[in-house]
Amino acid sequence: MINSRFFNRSELLGFLSLLLLLAVILPLFLDVFRLNLVAKYLTYAFVALGLVMCWGYGGILSLGQGVFFGLGGYCMAMFLKLEASSVANTKIQSTPGIPDFMDWNQITSLPMFWKPFHSLTLTIIAILVVPTLLAFIIGAAMFKRRVGGVYFAIITQAIAAIATILIIGQQGYTGGINGMTDLRTLNGWDIRTDHAKVILYFFEVFVLFACIITAQFIRLTKLGRILVAMREQEDRVRFSGYSVANFKIFAFCAAAMFAAIGGAMFTLQIGFMSPSFVGIVPSIEMVIYTAVGGRMSIFGAVYGTLLVNYAKTMLSESFPELWLFGLGGLFIAVVLFFPNGLSGIWRDHVARHIDRLIAMRSSKSKKAWAIKSAADGAPAE
Amino acid sequence: MFGDYSIGDLGAIFAMQGFAGLILFSVYVLMALGLAIIFGQMGVINMAHGEFMILGAYVTWLTSSFFQSHLPSLFSGYFFVAMILAFIASGALGMLVEWGLIRHLYKRPLDTLLATWGLSLILQQAYRSVFGAREVGVELPQWMMGSKQVTDTIEVPINGIFVMVLTLGITMVVAYIMYKSRWGRQVRAVVQNRVMAGAVGINTEKVDRYTFGLGCGIAGIAGSAFTMIGSTGPTSGQLYIVDTFLVVVFGGAASLFGTIASAFTISQAQSTMEFFMSGSMAKVLTLLTIVAILMIRPQGLFALKVRK
After folding, report:
1. What membrane topology does the UniProt entry give (chain B) (predicted)?
2. pLDDT 10s digits, B118-136
């Protein structure tokens, strides 16, 4: 490792200001409705974070992140749905004790693959393992054969299309186009109250920061450096004796797991899951969050997600017909003019001045620092 | 699944479904031809390809309305005028897009994908603002309506036959342009070695622009043909874009023959299965099979051997 510290000074600044924004400022100034909206945006930040790892660092553009987001969300929704369809709640159905949409589709017993979702522990394991496993299978099949770049993008997009058609088609098992609605409690705790929403928001922020720290950790290890090296000069890394495929599979799996965590959070926050968060369009929108934030920046991904989603809510509330023009223009502008997104703008235009300010202050107080650090026995910055 | 049908019935089913598959095949081929030229020859991912097709469809619809109100006597022949106009409109827009957007991104194929996706969103919204969100359908001229009775149990619609003949003709023209004409030779030279092609005096920028225009123009014709068999809405193009990309990738990029063969396989598989199971499951099975085959054989059915 070149840098022995976990965060350098500007990263620490970014980390703390993001923490301040999400954990203090937003909850203080927003009402519960808006805070819940922010919580919804933040679920996409998990996906964007995963994309920073696999697209920004690994150079693998996946257009199927919605599939993993959806898998995580559906696993969570299946647990909540089973809890909501207890025998007492569903006694008017012809078969009590199964989810309502199964009853409507003349299914009379719970299918096998639903059974594990009676247990919260198994559900959490499923949320983490099932999408990662799928990503592993896709990644192993493709990267071992050195398929990458645009082919990978197209195939993941096709997988997103397949997943949507499958979910909509298998109405009896998945709830079809309406998805799984009417989710009520988590182990007896009502998730629909305002109080619960605030608690879930803080829980989500906590998990998000855990993921950010994980991503930062991966970035700083040798693994992260190999990912970057691979993106720049894949053949050289291969000739140096590294298995390029395995590193790509890892990055893709990690991205899938982050997306799945985001999906599960989404279900908890919003209280339903539907195929409209799985398909081609949401998947590619998740890519634009990362692109706007800066595909190389972990914090940028979170800011980009918040910003694009905020713009989407604002514009589609007041000028619904303008939103698609705005989104389309955003795609083009980011790609043509700001390939490094917000974080690139920040680095080129703002960070310079801040660095200079800090440098000025530290040169003024160098003496004080030196004395202080000598007294503390800590190395001076 | 075959138990309830007699042999004769099954034969008729397969013939009719096969023919329905042939119409789907025509749409796939027309769309994939343009895409194969752009993606296969230039390596550009054009996510807005479906929108170029829909532009052709709207131009056809406008032409048919114009003929209906102003030149009703010539209405039976409007389609040929519409086809040419669709080609020109989509081709011109394609060249404009190449000039304004694509040429800045030749070295970043993944970014082209994102930018053209943005373009497709803008075009979709533009269609919605101009033509309205509702789907529009053209009125077919008299001679294209009805169907032809082949045997007692088999009948085929005439507009389907027409679309197929059209596809055949356009495929032959494209094959001629790409493989026999001087210009096609230039395109292939640029694809195989851009620097060398430039060194021997080919204007590679111009070749790129016209290639992209030609690909988009063919998409416009595809849209024109599409109006014969279905109605057009602002988002109709998006429904076909993934399928078409799979057709091109499955056939092996840069191989026109491969594109046609894979369009045939995919459309026939889908329409035959559609009769025996629900449409969505047929589609899922078809797409899954293609993805699985592509994982085993990433270069597609027919790969062009080029020394890189």
Report:
1. Multi-pass membrane protein
2. 999 999 999 988 888 888 8
For A235, the token pair is 């053949």
- Which of A61, A158, A328 lies nearest to residue B118, judging by beta carbons? A328
Measured in angstroms, the CA of B186 and the nearest CA of chain A are apart by 25
Instruction: Give the model's confidence band at B33: pLDDT under 50 very low, under 70 low, under 90 confident, else very high.
Output: confident
| pLDDT for residue A23 is more than 80 | yes
Q: Are residues A15 and A136 in the same domain?
A: yes
Total of domains in chain A: 2
**Shared-domain flag, residues A78 and A118:** yes
Q: How far apart, in Å, do the first and last CA atoms of chain A sit?
A: 18
Question: CB of A259 within 8 A of CB of A65?
Answer: yes
Q: How far apart are the first and last CA of chain B?
A: 49
Write out chain B residues lying below 8 Å of A287, CB-based.
114
**Are A304 and A358 in the same domain?**
no
Q: Higher confidence at residue B140 or residue A308?
A: A308
pLDDT of residue B254: 65
Residue A151 contacts B, CB cutoff 8 Å: yes
A218 and A346 belong to one structural domain: no
The answer for residues whose C-beta is within 8 angstroms of residue B44's C-beta and 6 or more apart is B38, B102, B105, B106, B109, B112, B116, B212
Structure tokens at B107: 């070295």
- Asked if A270 and A197 touch (Cβ cutoff 8 Å), the reply is no
pLDDT in the model for residue A324: 84
Its ipTM equals: 0.83
Same domain, residue pair A322 and A357: no
Q: Is the pLDDT of residue B144 over 80?
A: no
Which residues of chain B have a CB within 8 Å of the CB of A278? none
Nearest C-alpha neighbor of A118 from the set A151, A146, A80, A160? A80
Q: Would residue B300 be called left, alpha or beta, if left means φ above 0 and alpha means ψ between -120 and 50 degrees?
A: left
DSSP classification of residue B138: P
pLDDT at A85: 83
Give the one of B105, B121, B284 whose C-beta lies nearest to A162's C-beta: B284
Contact B194, B308 (CB under 8 A): no
Residue B147 scores a pLDDT above 90: no
Shared domain for A62 and A120, answered yes or no, is: yes
Same domain, A324 and A367: no
User: How many C-beta atoms surround the C-beta of residue B70 within 10 A?
Assistant: 10
**Distance, in angstroms, between B285 CA and closest chain A CA?**
9
Same domain for A371 and A250: no
Question: What residue in B sits closest to A288 (Cα-Cα)?
Answer: B114
Whether A2 is in a domain gets the answer no
Over pLDDT 70: what percentage of chain B? 92
Determine the structural domain holding residue A358 and report its residue range: 341-381
